[in-house]
Amino acid sequence: MRYFFAFILGFILLSLTVFGIAGRRGTDFRKPPLEIFNDMVRQAKLRPQVPNSFFADGRSSQPHVPGTVAQRVGGMNNDTWQGTAKNTGLTPGTTNFVATIPVPVTTAVLARGRERYNISCLPCHGAVGDGNGITKKIGAMPVVANLLDKNAIVIPDGQIFQIISNGKAPNMQGYASNIAIEDRWAIVAYVRSLQRARFATLEEVPAADRANLK
Ligand code: HEC
Fold first, then answer.
1. 155 to each of 38, 98, 99, 145, 151, how far by Cα in Å?
2. Ligand 1 within 6 A of CB of 176
3. Cα 182 to ligand 1 centroid, rounded to whole Å
4. Stretch among 8-17, 28-37, 139-148 having the lowest mean pLDDT
5. Domain of 36?
6. Residue of 10, 31, 33 whose CA lies nearest to 23
7. CATH no. for residue 110?
8. How many domains does the chain have?
């Protein structure tokens, strides 16, 4: 019997404690109420577009880091809503690749293309585009397409853009998320210049430079 009363007393005390702490939710307090489990209303996060002292400029929303590449722009399938030749590599309203690069090609663009090619393509396709990059030498990729082959020469510029964007099955992945649209066209221009450098005739070389080649 003694144990029974002790149990009842303990139970009542325990209930009072629990109610005392947790049971008064929703009542008004002067001080913030004790929260055993804090509500999800309060989260340790920055809300968008509000002042915040965490960043130096005092804003919670920060501008993109310079050089951020827009995602899902320039892929062939998800981008028809912005169907310009520059974004898709296609003649608008058709499924035909554009024959020539739809942006102006300048010396600066070519230089940029060379730099970007050397970063993204050279490891596989080689410095001159012949497919003898380091991945072939170390045996990681036994066969890499030779960009100086007829096959790669006859395809339209828009198709090279498309291959850079989406890759080519089975062994080349797409670079749409790594290489900005302008840079993809710059690379196309540089690939064309590599092909030209390999197959130009002597007559196309300025007369003054011909002697150096012989
Ligand atoms: C990881 C290695 C790798 C990288 C990096 C790579 N490629 Fe490729 N590429 C390949 C392989 C392999 C093929 C052949 C596709 C296949 O049949 O698997 C190919 C095919 C191609 C083709 C088609 C050639 C043809 O004859 O049809 C083009 C054009 C091309 N690549 C351009 C590029 C450009 C431009 C870049 C840089 C943006 C690049 N590739 C980066 C491995 C690579």
1. 62, 10, 8, 13, 7
2. no
3. 19
4. 28-37
5. 1-63
6. 33
7. 1.10.760.10
8. 2
